[in-house]
Design a protein that fits this description.
alpha+beta; ten-stranded mixed beta sheet; 29 strands; single chain; eleven-stranded mixed beta sheet
Length: 790
């Protein structure tokens, strides 16, 4: 499940950031619009192609104009910039220029050997057309074959077969339908937006058109060529699986055609039918497993009605029961998948739904319902509507989901008008039943707890589990929720069967194979690993009695960034050797960027002092500030802000290696019954080094847990940020930490006006001043605590 971090990442990744010339306005691409003819249709191919070429000309020129005025910095920004140029050139039949930009994109963001090179299909097609532009010429197929052979010849030996089978999956009929549906959805979105395409829409339409054109004309030819190179084949079979209430769920079964013996079966239950299922199915199948991808009820061809999270436990039991009785299954059923597909796996351990044929689980970046999605720290974010609306209907609407310009503009429109949060779907132009139901449960009541495993369920879980998450994964909280509960309630023998892998990865990267750029940072080469290979090795170990994988260092296998690399620990607590405390101080530092930055010191002052922090929460922040704050990774996006409290340590006199999550503890007095806060922590270096480490949020009424306790104005309260993300890394000697504290006044979260009622229904039209007195010094001094290894 994506979190707000992912939205922020996409926002910066799709912006061209200028430094040496001048800063690109944060909302630069959000103002980009292109008109769409009212009756445009993919069926009118000639008119559609003319329109696409007009789009490509303007899109290309817009990027070239941006490059003239602004310097493009950052690997992700350069990558996206050159990919967009490559697609525009391709549509305009400038194939050599398209190939040159593909290479520039890869140069700025090199692809690890276990991943298909970026824009590989465009490279194959453009390479062929640059040599033979007439697709009806007799020698075109021969030229295409040569391009494919050259592409495959350059694939790394260790991953060649996997990458060939991923390419085979790219030319199955569902992929062509996937591109076609995306084009249709993009046009539908334009019709609902005054017949205009925004920046994201133009980029998406051009990319889908390029892939659609290739697949429509040459899928059969390419598929034939690929099987001539590697004749082995994976059979895809549609199945309908009966549920106990008579509903049939649709699924796709993948099996190696040469495999005759019974095999273990890996199952995923998903609300995301996309046409891309073969990408995963092919890989599992060629590595000795049957793989079954099942659509949640109400999705794709599955019968029934979909309501997120509410029917998955019972359905997954029935799916496992059905699989265990098939003549191709050897009696062993395992599960795999990430995000929502991780949540569905944890439903399998609930007492009423635990099937004896379930032998292993591989939940990656799993959602913990009510813990990290659709609310976290009992706070709702705008993203949940983006996800919920994209999930309405038989398909997952990826075009709508990925239209970040639409969502950001919608969120800001809602925010600047002080509209109550429960009306966000109306502002977006629709009514969403999932969104409204979740908001109707603002406290952590039985609705949330009934859908999550109980302590007795964890105690009974005695099968092997392989959990995976990342430092930049919004569902890291969920992964740790499940892992920690299993360790707490299960016997030592059972708990030791649960291993956890965590590294410097974002949400999607931690589910299959991470690229080199994670959270706007180029991760170290040793951290660039083929996670899917590790998953297969683990399944081989626990289901086929093969050798224990070498990557497993201990119960927890973690990556220490900037330090020891991959290492093992039996627990996070064992890794902590000492706690280093830094106390907040009102002493101002000499800082050229912001003279109001204050000190964090290891010396706790004896005398209590207070820092007054106030804001009119009813007054929306201006758009320039809001859009600048989206660039979470850029120092200039927040360091000058009048809304934030900023504290810094002195430079470290030695390296400090983080061993667990940083603790943020504020002692304060509040003038209203409730308020929402965000805290962000950065590592700052003397040479301009600036890196986001972690963040956390808290709602004051939930300062003592899930039961709300409104604040008595003026009383002393403790704000301990509970779900700060873990980031295990070396903090270098000479560097320092920066803590940024802010009221949450943002388009991306509920706005808490501090009245103490249902936050989703609150608003204010007159000034609403929230004032916090933060305590420094004395027995109740506010501080951050760094758990370190040495």
């Amino acid at each position: 499940m994506k979190h707000i971090l992912i939205i922020l990442f996409v926002a910066i990744s799709t912006c061209v950031v200028a430094q040496s010339k001048k800063d690109l306005p944060a909302d630069y691409w959000f103002n980009y619009k292109q008109p769409v003819p009212e009756n445009l249709s993919l069926q009118n191919q000639a008119a559609f192609e003319v329109f696409v070429r007009v789009l490509a000309v303007d899109f290309m020129q817009a990027h070239l104009d941006a490059a003239k005025e602004y310097e493009i910095k950052g690997a992700s920004s350069k990558d996206i910039f050159h990919q967009n140029l490559a697609v525009a050139h391709f549509v305009l039949s400038n194939y050599k220029e398209a190939l040159a930009n593909i290479q520039l994109a890869r140069k700025s963001n090199p692809t690890p050997e276990y991943l298909s090179p970026a824009m590989n299909l465009a490279e194959i097609y453009a390479s062929t057309l640059s040599q033979q532009p007439n697709e009806k010429a007799k020698n075109f197929d021969a030229t295409l074959k040569k391009s494919i052979q050259n592409y495959i010849k350059n694939l790394p030996t260790d991953f060649r077969k996997d990458l060939i089978f991923e390419l085979k999956a790219d030319f199955t009929p569902p992929f062509l339908e996937y591109n076609q549906q995306n084009i249709i959805r993009q046009l539908d979105l334009a019709k609902n937006s005054a017949n205009q395409l925004n920046y994201q829409g133009v980029s998406s339409l051009l990319q889908n058109y390029a892939n659609y054109r290739f697949r429509k004309q040459h899928s059969a030819t390419v598929e034939k060529m690929l099987y001539a190179i590697d004749p082995s084949k994976v059979i895809e079979t549609k199945v309908m699986i009966p549920m106990r209430d008579g509903i049939l769920l649709s699924g796709l079964l993948y099996q190696d055609q040469n495999q005759k013996a019974k095999q273990p079966t890996i199952v995923s239950l998903s609300p995301y039918p996309s046409g891309t299922e073969a990408s995963y199915g092919n890989i599992f199948a060629i590595h000795g497993y049957s793989y079954l991808y099942v659509d949640c009820r109400g999705k794709n061809e599955s019968e029934g009605e979909f309501f997120p999270f509410e029917n998955d436990a019972q359905d997954f039991y029935d799916i496992i029961d059905w699989v265990s009785k098939q003549d191709w299954n050897n009696g062993q059923v395992a599960t795999s998948g990430g995000s929502y597909l991780g949540f569905t796996q944890w439903q399998n351990i609930r007492k009423a739904y635990r099937h004896p044929a379930l032998k292993a689980m591989n939940p990656m970046v799993p959602v913990a319902f009510g813990v990290d999605f659709p609310k976290i720290n009992n706070m709702f974010g705008s993203y949940l509507l983006q996800w919920a609306q994209s999930t309405i209907g038989k398909e997952f609407n990826r075009v709508l989901f990925s239209d970040f310009s639409f969502w950001m503009n919608t969120f800001y429109k809602h925010y600047k008008t002080n509209t109550p949060f429960y009306q966000l779907d109306s502002v977006a132009g629709f009514q969403n039943p999932y969104f409204q139901k979740w908001l109707s449960h603002p406290n952590h009541d039985q609705y949330w707890t009934d859908m999550m495993p109980k302590s007795s369920d964890y105690a009974a879980l005695d099968i092997p589990v392989f959990s995976i998450t990342g430092y930049y994964d919004g569902d890291q909280v969920g992964a740790y929720h499940y892992f920690d509960n299993h360790q707490k309630y299960a016997s030592k023998e059972a708990a030791d069967k649960h291993i956890l892998l965590i590294g410097p990865y974002e949400h999607f990267a931690a589910q299959w194979a991470p690229g080199p750029n994670q959270f706007a940072t180029v991760i170290e080469p040793a951290a660039q690993i083929p996670i899917y290979k590790y998953v297969i090795q683990w399944f081989d170990w626990v289901l086929k009695n093969k050798e224990k994988p070498a990557f497993i260092k201990d119960k927890i296998t973690l990556y220490e960034t900037g330090g020891a690399g991959w290492k093992g620990e039996s627990s996070m607590q064992e890794n902590v050797k000492k706690n280093v405390e830094f106390y907040l101080s009102p002493q101002q530092l000499s800082n050229a960027k912001n003279p109001k930055i204050m000190l964090m010191t290891q010396h706790r002052a004896k005398q209590e002092q207070r820092i007054t922090y106030s804001e009119d929460i009813a007054l929306p922040r201006d758009s320039a500030t809001v859009f600048a704050e989206m660039n979470y990774f850029l120092e200039d996006s927040y360091v000058h802000s009048p809304y934030k409290l900023i504290f810094e340590t002195e430079p470290f006199d030695r390296d400090n290696i983080l061993a667990d999550k940083i603790s943020i503890q504020l002692s304060a007095h509040l003038n209203v019954p409730d308020a929402d806060y965000m805290a962000q922590i950065y590592e700052i270096g003397p040479d301009g080094f600036h890196e986001a480490i972690t963040y956390g949020t808290i709602r004051a009424r939930f300062r003592n847990g899930n039961q709300p306790e409104l604040v008595k104005p003026g009383e002393l309260i403790q704000l301990n940020f509970a779900h700060v993300l873990i980031n295990l890394k070396k903090l270098k000697k000479g560097h320092k930490l920066r803590l940024v504290i802010d009221y949450i006044s943002s388009p991306y979260y509920q706005r808490n006006y501090g009245f103490g009622g249902d936050v989703s229904r609150e608003t204010a039209t007159s000034p609403r001043i929230i004032e916090t007195q933060i305590i420094t010094g004395g027995d109740n001094a506010s501080k951050i605590v760094l758990p370190v290894t040495e």
